[in-house]
Amino acid sequence: MMMQSLTNHFLVAMPSLQDTFFERTVIYMCEHGNKGAMGLIINRPYEILVTDLLEQMALQSEDISRPDMLEQAVMVGGPVTPERGFVLHTPQASWSNSIKLSDELMLTTSRDILTSIGTNKAPEHAMVILGYAGWSKDQLEQELAENSWLTIPANPANPANPANNEIIFHVPFEDRWQQATRALGFDVWQMSHQTGHA
After folding, report:
1. Residue 186: CB partners within 8 Å, gap ≥ 6?
2. Are 126 and 53 spatial neighbours (Cβ–Cβ below 8 Å)?
3. Cβ count within 10 A of residue 121
4. Which runs of consecutive H residues, i.e. helices, occur in the chain?
5. CA geometry: angle at 182 spanning 176 and 185, to 5°?
6. Residues 6+ apart with CB under 8 A from 45
7. Is 118 within 8 Å of 67 (Cβ atoms)?
8. Which residues have CB under 8 Å from 29's CB, separation 6+?
9. pTM tops 0.70
10. Model confidence pLDDT, tens digit, residues 17-69
């Protein structure tokens, strides 16, 4: 029997993932079901700005009204198909290939949204991401059993905890891991690598 779905949760890397690709990562889980799981790392930037990526793809608009969007870093979404692009954004219904992840978030994989970045047609907030993190059937459950990850609802019931939009779009990427763990009420790096389930 599968555990409760972790869709719309954050996975927070435990100290046991030190010296791996996922060290100190925060992953927003887009999908988790019987066939496996898919998520996007939200706190690891490439050394390339959105404006540079759009220029390389010849997708930059002439009508720039929001240059701050273009000055954001493109994010490393995970090790799977790093050439594949995603835009994680606040809801907007006008794109050709989007899925609603929650009341606050959508994921679009079509190129049309990229031409809007930096213009007044863009979503209010958007993150451009290359690649994703993927797990085959039961793989994530095994990693959770090995205490590789902590899980936190991305839309916490407790209003004192930061919601996903705040962590994803408003907290500087270098602070997102710390901010996500703060919702748990302790410093995760004080825990041993062999922590058991409570």
Report:
1. none
2. no
3. 16
4. 50-56, 67-70, 112-116, 139-145, 164-165, 176-182
5. 165
6. 73, 74, 75, 76, 173
7. yes
8. 6, 7, 8, 9, 10, 11, 37, 38, 39, 154
9. yes
10. 989 999 999 999 999 999 999 999 999 999 999 999 999 999 878 889 999 99
> 133: which residues sit within 8 A by CB, 6+ positions away?
22, 27, 38, 39, 40, 41, 77, 78, 79, 80
For residue range 86-98, list pLDDT tens digits in order. Answer: 999 999 988 989 9
Q: What is the DSSP letter of 53?
A: H
E strands, the chain, where?
Answer: 9-13, 26-33, 36-41, 45-49, 73-76, 80-89, 98-100, 106-108, 126-136, 149-153
Q: Which two tokens stand for residue 179?
A: 């901010």
Please enumerate in sequence order all residues whose Cβ is within 8 A of that of 140, keeping only pairs 6 or more positions apart, or say none.
Answer: 6, 32, 36, 37, 149
How is residue 36 written in tokens? 């496996």
What single-letter DSSP state applies at residue 190?
G
